[in-house]
Design goal:
The protein has 244 residues and is an alpha/beta fold. It has helices at 22-29, 45-53, 55-63, 72-82, 91-104, 116-130, 147-157, 170-181, 193-197, 206-210, 214-221, 223-226, 230-240, and strands spanning 8-11, 14-17, 38-43, 66-69, 109-113, 134-138, 161-165, 186-189. Bound molecules: uridine-5'-diphosphate.
Length: 244
């Protein structure tokens, strides 16, 4: 079978892979009965702007095995710049599809991040609903001096997939450092996904998602995010003045 190469798009110097669909992405990650290794980083408008000001995050993104457009603004910018029909792949949907597949294929998973009660509920759901082999978990509120021990625990767990929910850029930094200790896993940054899956945070209703307004729903439902909305204004400026 011949496979079409995945196109790479460039936005403000960042390479973003253009998988044709979530299924295509999953097939690449799980090809030949083995999970790929390296970092998966989802890009939305905010992260593109942060990479402009944070060289450490940019370097991590440059070395990631997989980058993808999970924000509708990034998808629209790529469509505009490359006149291409790229779909949006929402990180939370991709993660759920990966976990369902990991359950079917008995692939070991380590969960890191979020509050302890959230993590416990996510772990319970993964085990009960999808039969996922969860080989370890760690909540996201630990001290810096525990990091090395956590990296070591992850390595010893033998996890093939490590999902990291710390928010950005903490999760990217964690994945990068852990990958150096244990390069044998696929690391996926999932932001606030655990809170939604555990039922502590409501995902945007279907109508908002269909209207491509999931970002606005999240912005309005979390006043803390409003303080960061200046980055979205910067992004819109880049988009409309062809600076992406
Ligand atoms: N989080 C964590 N440790 C921290 C800060 C945040 O585990 O020190 C978790 C938080 O509980 C949430 C996730 O990181 O589950 C994402 O947080 P948030 O929604 O604030 O991130 P954003 O998506 O806005 O970057």
């Amino acid at each position: 079978m011949t496979t079409t190469p995945v196109p790479t798009y460039r936005l403000r110097g960042l390479d973003i892979l253009g998988f044709g669909s979530q299924e295509e992405f999953l097939d690449e990650l799980f090809a030949d009965g083995r999970v790929k290794t390296g970092l998966m980083i989802a890009f939305n408008a905010e992260k593109v702007v942060v990479c402009d000001r944070d060289p450490a995050l940019r370097r991590i993104a440059e070395q990631a095995a997989y980058t993808y457009a999970d924000g509708i603004s990034v998808v629209r910018s790529i469509r505009r710049k490359y006149a291409d029909g790229l779909p949006r792949i929402a990180g939370i949907d991709l993660w759920q599809a990966m976990m369902s597949r990991a359950g079917r294929e008995r692939i070991p998973v380590f969960l890191l991040g979020a509050r302890a009660e959230v993590l416990t509920e996510v772990e319970r759901r993964l085990k009960d609903e999808w039969g996922v082999d969860v080989v370890g978990g760690q909540d996201g509120y630990f001290d810096d001096d525990q990091r090395d021990a956590i990296f070591e625990r992850i390595r010893r767990s033998g996890a093939a997939i490590v999902t990291v929910a710390l928010g950005s850029p903490a999760q990217e930094i964690f994945m990068h450092e852990c990958h150096q200790v244990y390069p044998g896993a696929l690391y996926m940054g999932v932001g606030g996904t655990f809170d939604v899956v555990a039922g502590y945070v409501k995902r945007a209703p279907a109508g908002w998602r269909r209207a491509n307004l999931e970002w606005l729903y999240r912005l309005l439902s979390r006043p803390a995010r409003l303080r960061r909305s200046g980055r979205l204004v910067v992004y819109a400026f880049y988009h409309f003045t062809n600076r992406l």
